Amino acid sequence: MASAALKDELDIVIPTIRNLDFLEMWRSFFEQYHLIIVQDGDPSKTIKVPDGFDYELYNRNDINKILGPRSSCISFKDSACRCFGYMVSKKKYIYTIDDDCFVAKDPSGKDINALEQHIKNLLCPSTPNFFNTLYDPFREGADYVRGYPFSLREGVPTAVSHGLWLNIPDYDAPTQLVKPLERNTRYVDMVLTIPKGTLFPMCGMNLAFDRELIGPAMYFGLMGDGQPIGRYDDMWAGWCCKVICDHLGLGIKTGLPYIYHSKASNPFVNLKKEYLGIFWQEEIIPFFQSHNFSKDCTTVQKCYVELSKQVKEKLGKVDPYFLKLADAMVTWIEAWDMLNPPNKDSANASSK
Amino acid sequence: MASAALKDELDIVIPTIRNLDFLEMWRSFFEQYHLIIVQDGDPSKTIKVPDGFDYELYNRNDINKILGPRSSCISFKDSACRCFGYMVSKKKYIYTIDDDCFVAKDPSGKDINALEQHIKNLLCPSTPNFFNTLYDPFREGADYVRGYPFSLREGVPTAVSHGLWLNIPDYDAPTQLVKPLERNTRYVDMVLTIPKGTLFPMCGMNLAFDRELIGPAMYFGLMGDGQPIGRYDDMWAGWCCKVICDHLGLGIKTGLPYIYHSKASNPFVNLKKEYLGIFWQEEIIPFFQSHNFSKDCTTVQKCYVELSKQVKEKLGKVDPYFLKLADAMVTWIEAWDMLNPPNKDSANASSK
Q1: What is the ipTM score, two decimals?
Q2: What is the crossing angle of helices B233-248 and B300-310, to 10°?
Q3: Among A133, A187, A203, the residue to mutate for chain B (most B Cβ within 10 A)
Q4: Site: Required for activity. Where (chains A, B) (predicted)?
């Protein structure tokens, strides 16, 4: 079984400010894996983890101690802090999940093993260069359809698996306000590759990735305490990852698996966090859509540093926040390379 | 109800060589619409149409009489002849279906009204400029997710609705030979927009489109009698339509509705028809992927004529067949404009 095979190759990263009771529900699916818990907020608070889980826990004091001055790139009082967990992991794969996400049921009523589906997604190739109308051609019972070029059928390595949510959909504050009662009840039995050249809104609630392939680009930015915006952490990571994956010939899949998202966050609080992002994204999206990497960008790190320069140059005009973010992007890469000496992970990433 | 509203605005085009017994199964869904039957092969043969359907039927003699020397652009002994039906229609919308396609059932066991779903798809906007992870945001119970730029939420007009097939999947001959028993049993409850810049394999089996928006690009090429290839008619139309839609800011949707495809065609016969196409598509796809229209191309007709010149120049080197095809593309536009005087349809198309 795919998931059993990855027992020693995958960490589960959970950002939290509370006791992790939600893990009880995931016990049968998560218990065999190692957890990296990133405690947000007050470091003196004790987070309870149910018995029987294998975990390490980092609070703000730990982050400051490990990264020193470079800890400035890790957000505080925002779930964006989760990316610290990506950095300290030594595994090939990461699965990250929010602590208000429960096990969903498929249409037959069976519990969905989200992690197993993510592993399936990551272990088979992506097809970003041409759309297959029967979706993931590597799925059992499916294949490439007539007219799909044979030279493209090998696919490309999959770097990211983006899962979805039943019950509370991942809406922005304005949509939450307008449709407070909307629930996602539709189970779409499908995985597909986001085509090359197309951006998407990557949600960090239920997300897996290959950290050897794309880890250094999975930076969740500067959000929360002392920052002018929130709720764009995963979006920022998604836009950066997508353009880098497109450049390096890697794939991003979206669709299955679903988790059950239990609770809508407060739309009024969200609006306050989001409103600058809502303006800014109108300039950020064209920036990413028109972005091209130079030929020297042969590793994720090189791509990311070049991207940070462009962010400074082109988005710095939008708001000084982006100057700070661009610097933090560089700090993030320095911190990543400090904890993941380049002769190991980066060499792998660049050989793909 | 959407479908009732379009009663006078949609024609159903069916290419056939046999009696249309399959219409009995579609009676309750099709009876209110006008059918355009394009009889392929021996024109002296009589095609029986079940009582109660409103139809017009064209055989090869009719096509020759109506188009004169321009009838050379309409394929013979190949279902590509169906595009003649698109040309003689005077309606805004076309639905085309193969005569071996039956009514499929949804997971609850209910008969699927394919036409009604196509109309839904065509009547609401497409979103080619950014991927929405909950798929069609205009569907009931769905919306744009967090991080989707607000400036793109109006969408663009939908020109094409590409439906899928349960039972026999639309595989090429090599895949048919390797997987003779594979059946598509998975009902994916979803419609999505094919992103801008991404090509897809458009199948003509279960296809609807807005002929005012994209009709002149829906040419199914030269296939069958006297031609070196077959089974690339709908693919050709799909590639041309996609690049033109991308250029003109129109959308193409794929997914629901499903029909039940009853019978696999003979893979040995198919291999003979396809094998040149299998080679050629390796050059055709990069041609379309790198194609850019000039700014003068403000209507579908202008785009199509410019595309024909590029086909001649760039694909003519691949095989002389493409020189012939490029000429036929121009003839097709002349014939289209003859039957659809530009002051009516083209003016509409260019105003979008």
Answers
A1: 0.95
A2: 120
A3: A133
A4: 146, 153
